[in-house]
Design brief:
Helices cover 31% and strands 21% of the residues. By secondary structure, it is an alpha+beta fold. The longest helix is centred in the C-terminal third of the chain and has 20 residues. The radius of gyration is 19 Å and the shape is globular. The two termini are 36 Å apart.
């Protein structure tokens, strides 16, 4: 993203550090690894310190994983651009089985995601869940150390790290929808900077439309780390297809909605978000209080 921003400003990659220097900020979500996010404040802990720096003017933009962003942003901040999205699917990794269904009875599945836990328990209520947090390398090391029989990660992370030689099986996103916005990055800026040419040059319209739909569902479901929500948007020409689901924390009940919208015109992102909101509201009405942890 640093090189892409430099290019949008009219400079080559050799000038990237001079014209768009990286400012590293370690968040609370990065530091606290021994507890689930929902126990310490939710996924806002991955963004708060960075957003404070953006509001204070210490940085000019922030780059986040969309799935780590809250449904509602702090006043004065907006998502200025969604670059081209990486593969949004989850991936199953194990040396003992090729899928969740093939795991032996009572196998230990490692993930800190409430959504992944609920989706796995919906298929296999006999599984034992192991809370695994940390970066990709940390989770893979815990798998190798035998702390879990299998883990589920975002395929985008593996691709970005060049980890293509693992015993990994992508999950069907229609059957196990990923987190809203998974695989996508967001360039967050102050509201007054949203229309700057260097910001708009970073936008990949198909990715932005898909993310708008999924985040619309997230907002309608009041999604957080305390709600097991999945969403999968697929764009085919001017037609956007969206699947939204939410599960009870134990995976026993699943509520799903699907629909389509025409997003080919100038208001494509608004139409996409509207579809997401409608489907999300329908899931929320159906699931009610059963969806809360």
């Amino acid at each position: 993203m640093q090189r892409a921003i430099a290019a949008a400003l009219g400079f080559g990659p050799e000038e990237a550090e001079r014209v768009a220097p990286l400012i590293h900020i370690t968040t609370t979500g990065d530091r606290v690894q021994d507890r689930r996010l929902l126990e310490i404040g939710g996924k806002v802990l991955f963004t708060k310190e960075i957003e404070d720096a953006l509001l204070d003017g210490r940085i000019d933009c922030a780059v986040h994983s969309v799935k780590d962003m809250a449904a509602e942003l702090p006043p004065g901040l907006v998502i200025g651009a969604i670059p081209e999205r990486e593969d949004p699917r989850d991936v199953f990794i194990s040396h003992k089985a090729g899928s969740v269904a093939a795991l032996p009875p009572g196998a230990r599945l490692g993930t800190a995601s409430l959504r992944r836990q609920a989706q796995a328990l919906h298929m296999r209520p006999d599984l034992k869940l192991v809370n695994l947090r940390g970066n990709v390398d940390t989770r893979l090391a815990k798998l190798e150390a035998g702390e879990a029989d299998a883990i589920i990660l975002a395929l985008a992370g593996l691709k970005r790290l060049g980890l293509s030689d693992l015993p990994a099986t992508p999950l069907d996103p229609a059957e196990q929808p990923p987190a809203p916005g998974q695989g996508a990055l967001a360039v967050e800026v102050r509201a007054e900077d949203a229309g700057q040419p260097w910001v708009t040059a970073l936008i990949h319209r198909p990715s932005a439309i898909a993310v708008a739909a999924e985040r619309g569902a997230l907002a309608a479901l009041e999604g957080s780390c305390k709600t097991a929500i999945g969403a999968c948007a697929t764009l085919r020409g001017a037609k956007l297809h969206l699947i939204v689901e939410a599960l009870t924390p134990d995976g026993a009940r699943r509520f799903r909605q699907a629909g389509e919208a025409d997003v080919g015109g100038a208001g494509g992102e608004a139409a996409a978000r509207g579809l997401g909101v409608r489907l999300g509201e329908a899931v929320r009405r159906e699931g009610g209080s059963a969806l809360e942890l």
